[in-house]
């Protein structure tokens, strides 16, 4: 799975600012917004890859979308009318952020975190190396959780679940991002933090991308913003997760509970 950078300049794009603002409303209302986008390195882009869309050019630039590529590249008419050979992919955002009117991860933030990569210039549809892609994913989830989990914001929309303060925790609990999961396994192992069941003794975790065991690390909410959101991810086995699900259904109306609520059962 690759991480692909898409670029959007609303001043020259056929996809104008009004369409983007309408997209935020559609995502918020339907949780089923999709679109297509041009990709430069089409031979390196595949269905199932992750994408980040950057607003570039003038104004408040930064990350405006993240999500998944849901088709292989295909050739179609050049959006600019210049007759160029142009390839597109269909994309499904998970989050949309309007940089015009609230908290956002800016191009300046990206440049500060990763100064060796040129963020504000270049073609749309360029593939990051695995290391940089994983680091960008961590920066993004850390921003999202701290910016949008305390109170609802008008410049934010979830396209996978109802847009509210639970959108980010629920997305990263139920739809774990593969690069983050692989990074966690590499650095913290794959043993359940409750019962000790070790996935690495049963599965080849190098192939988490392709099937078999999918989620083994899950995101758990905390009561306050955190400096490093990695501490909110915990490895639990299927049996312990069933116990957790029963616990939150019985005590919290089905909503997510902090990891500590499950860890207490270990004692």
Summary tags:
8-stranded mixed β-sheet, globular, alpha+beta, single chain, 7 helices, 10 strands, 267 residues, two-stranded antiparallel ribbon
Describe the model.
The mean pLDDT is 88. The protein is globular and about 65 Å long. Strands 1, 2, 3, 4, 5, 6, 7 and 8 form an eight-stranded mixed sheet that branches. Strands 9-10 form a two-stranded antiparallel ribbon. Helix 3 runs antiparallel to helix 4. The chain is 29% helix and 19% strand. It has seven helices and ten strands. It has 267 residues and is α+β, with helices and mostly antiparallel strands.
Give the N-terminus to C-terminus distance in angstroms: 38 Å
Please give the number of β-strands: 10
**SSE string, helices as H and strands as E:** EHEEEEEHEHEHHEEHH
What's the number of helices? 7
Residue share in β-strands: 15-25%
Mean pLDDT: 88
Outline: globular
What summary fits the major beta sheet? 8 strands, mixed
Helix content: 25-40%
Radius of gyration, in Å, reads: 19 Å
Structural class: alpha+beta
Residue stretches low in confidence (pLDDT < 50, at least 5 long) are: none
């Amino acid at each position: 799975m690759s991480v692909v950078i898409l670029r959007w300049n609303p001043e020259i794009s056929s996809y104008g600012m009004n369409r983007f603002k309408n997209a935020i409303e559609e995502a918020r209302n339907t949780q089923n917004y999709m679109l297509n986008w041009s990709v430069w390195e089409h031979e390196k882009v595949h269905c199932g890859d992750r994408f980040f869309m950057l607003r570039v050019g003038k104004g408040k630039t930064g990350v405006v979308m993240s999500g998944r590529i849901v088709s292989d590249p295909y050739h179609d008419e050049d959006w600019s009318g210049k007759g160029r050979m142009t390839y597109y992919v269909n994309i499904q955002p998970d989050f949309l952020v309007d940089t015009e009117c609230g908290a956002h991860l800016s191009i300046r933030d990206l440049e500060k975190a990763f100064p060796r990569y040129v963020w504000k210039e270049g073609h749309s549809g360029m593939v990051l190396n695995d290391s940089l892609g994983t680091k960008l994913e961590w920066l993004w989830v850390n921003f999202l959780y701290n910016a949008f989990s305390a109170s609802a914001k008008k410049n934010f929309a979830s396209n996978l679940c109802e847009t509210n303060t639970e959108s980010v925790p629920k997305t990263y609990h139920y739809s774990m991002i593969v690069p983050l999961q692989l990074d966690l396994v590499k650095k913290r192992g794959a043993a359940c933090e409750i019962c000790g069941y070790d996935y690495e003794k049963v599965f080849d975790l190098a192939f988490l991308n392709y099937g078999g065991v999918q989620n083994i690390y899950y995101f758990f909410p905390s009561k306050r913003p955190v400096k490093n959101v990695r501490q909110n991810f915990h490895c639990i086995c299927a049996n312990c997760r069933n116990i957790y699900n029963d616990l939150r259904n019985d005590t919290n109306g089905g909503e997510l509970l902090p990891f500590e609520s499950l860890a207490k059962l270990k004692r």
